[in-house]
Design a protein that fits this description.
Chain lengths: 518, 275
Amino acid sequence: MLLNPANRDPAARGRLIGALATLVILWPLFQAAEVKPGALFDSGNLKVIGNFLAAFLPPETGAEFLGYLAKATLETLAIATAGMALAFLIAVPMAYLATGAGREKPTLNPITRSLLTILRGIPELVWALVFVRVFGLGPAAGVLALGLTYGGMLAKVYAEILESVDAAPARALRHSGASRLLAILYGLIPQASKELASYTVYRWECAIRASVVMGFVGAGGLGQLMDQAMKMLNGGEAATILLTFMGLVFSADGLSGWLRRALDTPPANHASPFGWRSIGLLVTLFASIVASFQLLDIGFGELFSAEAAHSIGEFIAGFFPPDLSAEWLAKVAKGIWETLAISVVGTLLAAIAGLLLALPKWRAPFSFILNSLRSVPELVWATITALAVGLGPFAGALALALHTAGVLGRLYAEALDNAPPTPGKALRLAGAPGGFAFLYGTLPGAAPQLIAYTLYRWEMNIRMAAILGFVGAGGLGQLLYFELSLFHHAQASTVIMAMLLLSIAVDQASAWLRQRMR
Amino acid sequence: MSFRLNGVGLTHANGFAALKGITLLAEKGERIALIGPSGAGKTSLLSVLGTALEPTDGLAEVFEFDQNFWDTSAIKALRARIGTVHQSPPIPGRQRVVTAVLAGKLGQWPAWKSLASLVYPLDIPGARAALERVDLADKLFARCDELSGGQLQRVGIARVLYQQPELILADEPVSALDPALALATIRLLTADAEACGATLVASLHAVDLALGNFPRIVGVKAGRIAFDLPSERVTVPMLHELYASEGEQLPIQAHEPHFLSQAPANDAATRAKCC
Ligand SMILES: Nc1ncnc2c1ncn2[C@@H]1O[C@H](COP(=O)(O)OP(=O)(O)O)[C@@H](O)[C@H]1O
Ligand SMILES: [Mg+2]
């Protein structure tokens, strides 16, 4: 049967080559990530993690500690809110400059685009680490770091959303003489407003998670408390802090879901575009931004004084020229490879676990697990996995996998729910067992979504993998952390550039893969 | 006997009675067209026959199974013997035609074969033969989202042919196709059902297609059977009565109604390739 060439599958060769190529690439990556499942069951490690987890119970509830906790929680919320406000201020003009929307010719502004890439490409924790050196320990560094990275992300997505809506209304306005700004405001914003608002709310939710971990580099908030608890192996405190994380993330989720649903309700029928609810929201928003800055007590006067400018200038000058000696470059190259390995292995493990947890048949009991996995940031997971398997890249990959499995599992479940149900149902009616009806009928319909989510997550994970080293999980982060602690700025700047290049390269690779797998 | 419905009623979850006292018996190899205004209950009737919905009243028997098979493992064995052609083909766009056709036998294959076929299609000659009958053999390795609506519908039919069911159900299989293609597709279905000795029950929106291609016509109205006659005994007044709720015009496919029965396309080659 296989001998007749007409009855051979012409795609088989390509598939085989693809599978082999994947193996050839993945094998050394798994090696580099030092994947050794055995370490999970190593008796020494088991004892350490076992003792630590045993100390989780009972969670610490002393009044003094709870006082610290409350303060740190407020600080985290304030860092997120103030950081988002700053990000928004940065994003709006940048998006206006960067987007091709509303232009006569859809030219893109290359300078703003590359500036945005730099802002986004360097992880917020690296910015925070750098700012802590300039402005000293405290939340100011966290706010600025969030503002810059999230400003870059918001600007890029705003620009893309404006480009993706129907351009005809704006073009018509411009032809009748309106300025570009007005053409965008009247021609594009009305179509894009819902998506813009929805994405902003979603980002705010992410900012809360991000601000939690700012503390790991000394920028205040819950992360700092967690860092201390972990360093002292104080399981009771760690447990309480973890529970607080989860509470915070769950409520942010709920609030953001409610806000995004509210965007779906059609506007009331009156002249003013604002109802009492929108006005209430705006007032609350404004008040919380003001309160956040008050609470954090950031002296912007000092930040922007001549003295500060001088010290920033000096500090930045220290980063140039970067150390490009062959010896250092070799070390950085190893760090790049290790970081790539952590991101790939972590994402792959997460994709497998996420898919299993998202299967319709099993989902119900596991949605709580998915949410818990997701609510603990990667960096916090890394402090725990480092106890479980020892310091090194495997701890980083596991930490990425744990958090990402929660994220992807939820997204996968959503995609599977939204996949067209009829193909699977039709196969079941033709007698196919449920599992095969899923594989042949439902999965192909959801696959583009699943692949896109996974690759997008990989883009985020490469940035995350780059900083997991801050807590000893290998890769570029570990190099950067050492060099910055030793004030080796020239070496540190090479590492930061490597992070930037790596994240750009991964973005390209992911875009290419998405294109290929469509 | 292929199936027997005895006083079957179907009440939907919202309390709406879509079928009332349906009694219908079909011998093996019969070709039956269901006609009637929209909302009459044609889809509901086909769903009961296809074991998609359990009747709330009366007795439904398909082959040697009666409705007590529900919720047992026997239902999979029964379903593997029923093939359904859907109004819009339920095939994922990213799937290749060959895989979509092979999926017809998932109910009969052992698990290893179904799994392996995801990696490498195990019965390429079989899929090709089924596609040849719908004139699509050249699309064997194409992706389904590269096909036109009519081609995709024929892939759906090829899957059912490949499944080799003993009972073929078709719910308005051609209402999304243009008239010429619709006629060709219906002829193909009837010819293949006849060649394989399978029972065919199809609901059709166009009266002329039904009368021209099916020996037996069942008129359905408001959840009941209005008439059940050989096609040559169905009269125009009967049809007007059946479609009274939809106005003066009878729903037809061609622009000029011709209710003369046509010999179904049924050449020796089709018969030879079958089963
Ligand atoms: N799932 C359902 N729930 C409630 N009512 C339904 C459902 N499906 C169909 N019906 C109703 O049953 C009647 C018959 O529907 P159907 O069998 O689809 O008719 P036909 O296929 O002849 O157009 C219609 O009035 C329809 O509104
Ligand atoms: Mg119908």
